[in-house]
Amino acid sequence: MIANAVSAVPNSLIQKLRAGRAVLWATLLAVSLADARSQVQAVGAVSFALADSWQYQKGADFGIMTLKSDNRFWAIAVYTDSPSSGNAVTDFRKAWSRVLPAPNYRAPGYDPYDMTQTIGYPGKYYDGPSVDQKTYTRLFVLEAGKTCVPVAFVSGSRDMLDGMSHNARAVVGSVRVAPLRASEIRYSITAADLAGFWATGLVAGTNYYDRAGVFKGTSTTAIRSGYTVAANGSFTSKYSGLVNNRATGDEDAGMIELGGGFLTFRGQKHVERYRFVNLQEALDGSSVLTLWPPVDLSQINSSRDSTFFTRSAKK
Predict the structure, then answer these.
(1) Is residue 239 one of the residues assigned to a domain?
(2) pLDDT per residue over 164-214, tens digit each?
(3) pLDDT digits (tens, 9 = 90+) for 45-74
(4) Sequence-separated contacts (24+) of 249-252 with Cβ below 8 Å
(5) Which tens digit of pLDDT belongs to each residue from 2-48?
(6) How far is residue 140 from each of residues 13, 34, 35, 147, measured CA to CA in Å?
(7) Secondary structure of residue 186 in the 3-state scheme
(8) Is there a single domain that holds both residue 18 and residue 84?
(9) What is the mean pLDDT of the chain?
(10) φ, ψ dihedrals at 45, nearest 5°
(11) Exposure string (b/e) for 111-129, b if CB count within 10 Å is 16 or more?
């Protein structure tokens, strides 16, 4: 059955999706027998980390990781790199034709968007449904110097896709082209893993107008927070900035607590609790910690609710 699953992987992800969901279900069930033996995989010169608990399978020119839950499915396919034209939009359109060819997908009607919140290569992305409305795909094209790397994120609908966007963001951020090598995405940590200085920030502004449309002013919130964590779990923290144009700041100290999927900073003055998502290495060598609010998972929108803490690379 494993052999059948491997032989069923075509040269293009979209070729596998042409036959509809039934073929995809069969493939997802088959690859469940072939768990990834390594958290970092490679196709040609391109290496990348695997999402936690997703199944992995290698095709002719891509590696695909898949996840199925009831009638929902997701797939992330990382492709071999291609020479870059030096124009990111041109590279994107060429990659779209390679990964999502007509007549299954229509070409984008607009220029692709710039990627934001990425810890890896810069690039462009665009998404849309298949012509038969059976799949929805977000295509990322990463600009890695002289080459570019397509990464396709596929699900059954836009809402279904967005529910796993944090996994796609982590995998896309992990992609490296040789001689660089991808690092695994950490889905569990110890206090020692957090040793060092971690910083995060928030900037928001609101403009105010009267009923006549005359500008009346701006309210600005800009906060920078930092935690210095010791290997034994003790920490000191400090934040400063503006809240609604008013200066604010505070300091605290205490111990971190890890357990049940949560990271808690239990200080003498305040207690800050987060859901731990992952820890991974950015392209510049820094470490990025992704956290969510400590609410029920059904209430979380990963695009809206993710908080990122950064620790500078060791010198």
Answers:
(1) yes
(2) 999 999 999 999 999 999 999 999 999 999 999 999 886 777 888 877 777
(3) 999 999 999 999 998 899 999 999 888 999
(4) none
(5) 222 222 333 344 444 443 334 443 444 443 333 434 699 999 999 99
(6) 14, 26, 25, 14
(7) strand
(8) yes
(9) 85
(10) -85, 0
(11) ebeebeebbbbebbbbbbe
Q: Give the tokens for residue 180.
A: 């660089």
Domain end call among 146, 177, 208: 177
* Residue 205: Cβ-neighbour burial (10 angstroms; 0-12, 13-18, 19+): exposed
Q: Measure Cα distances from 108 to 89, 94, 139 in Å.
A: 11, 11, 11
Q: Are 216 and 208 in contact (CB under 8 A)?
A: yes
Looking at the fold, whether 74 and 122 belong to one and the same domain comes out as: yes
Q: What is the DSSP string of 66-77?
A: EEEETTEEEEEE
For residue 182, tell me if it sits in a domain. Answer: no
How many domains, the chain? Answer: 2
> Are 306 and 290 spatial neighbours (Cβ–Cβ below 8 Å)?
yes
Here the CATH number for the domain that contains residue 162 is 2.60.120.1690
**Across 101-121, average pLDDT:** 90
Q: How far apart are the first and last CA of the chain?
A: 49
Q: Look at residues 227, 196, 225, 200 and name the one whose alpha carbon lies nearest to residue 314.
A: 196
Q: What is the pLDDT of residues 251-307, one digit of tens each?
A: 999 999 999 999 999 999 999 999 999 999 999 999 999 999 999 988 998 888 888
